[in-house]
Specification:
It is built from 8 helices and 12 strands. The protein starts with 5 loop residues before the first strand and ends with a strand. The chain folds into 2 domains: about 120 residues, 3-Layer(aba) Sandwich (Rossmann fold); about 100 residues, Arc Repressor Mutant, subunit A, CATH 1.10.10.10. It has about 240 residues and is of the alpha/beta class. It is globular and about 50 Å long. It is about 40% helix and about 20% strand. Helix 4 packs parallel to helix 8 and helix 6 packs across helix 8. One of its GO terms (cellular component) is cytosol.
Length: about 240
């Protein structure tokens, strides 16, 4: 790395914070920690980290609330830490704009792989094949500002996960993309059996694209999803 990536860990478990901080520091990251939302906001006020690891269960504002607050002003990658049996936590986190989730039975090596995948994706998504604007139907994506312009001219800033998913579709228009391909590209791993995360992300993107009838992002039985539109790249 040309410079250290900073990772913010927000968790009220001192044991977990210390263990992750030591492991990630040894792996070459600059690590800062917070025990709750109040401390998290103080850290964020000093500068945005490269990635945030955010526990769901926190004193005061929980991880869902904090994720929603972060997404109002930032596209920083967020990995949610959830309880092993609570699928609702994972779905809710993704709906609020988290980029990935991992259960608290994870190994440090698995977490490191997730972090590296999201950081690679974040760096790649700074631009899309050199094009500033990507046009499809009456929509336009500003790849530098990460702003989606509606047919009526309104602008919506996309979260990191939504931007990555739309960028993937725009790189492969009119081509079927399986859930595994989508997961490997935007998360750096295959989709797990019965995992709903990709479906949730597609549903959220459809809502932003006002695609109620699923004619723009089509569901292909036993194949996955496909963006059904011609794409034009503009400098």
């Amino acid at each position: 790395m040309a410079f250290q990536k900073r990772i913010l860990i927000v968790d009220d478990s001192e044991e977990l914070r210390d263990a992750l901080s030591a492991y990630l520091t040894k792996s070459g990251f600059d690590v800062v920690t917070a025990v709750d939302g109040e401390q998290m906001h103080k850290v964020l006020a000093q500068g945005e980290p490269s990635l945030i690891i955010l526990d769901v269960m926190l004193p005061g504002d929980d991880g869902f609330t904090l994720c929603s607050q972060i997404r109002k002003t930032s596209n920083v990658p967020i990995i949610m830490l959830t309880a092993v049996t609570d699928e609702i936590d994972r779905v809710t986190g993704l709906e609020l704009g988290a980029d990935d989730y991992i259960t608290k039975t994870f190994s440090p090596r698995e977490l490191l792989a997730r972090i590296k995948a999201l950081l690679r994706r974040s760096q790649f998504n700074q631009g899309l094949e050199g094009a500033r604007y990507i046009c499809f139907l009456d929509w336009k994506l500003d790849t530098l500002a990460r702003v989606l312009v509606t047919p009526s001219g309104d602008e919506t800033t996309l979260s990191g996960a939504d931007f990555s998913l739309l960028s993937l579709f725009l790189r492969h228009p009119n081509q079927p993309l399986s859930r595994n391909i989508i997961s490997e590209t935007i998360r750096g791993r295959e989709a797990m059996p019965l995992e709903r995360g990709i479906d949730i992300q597609v549903s959220r993107l459809r809502a932003k694209l006002e695609d109620q009838d699923h004619s723009l992002i089509r569901t292909l039985r036993n194949e996955g999803y496909m963006l059904s539109a011609d794409v034009i790249h503009e400098a």
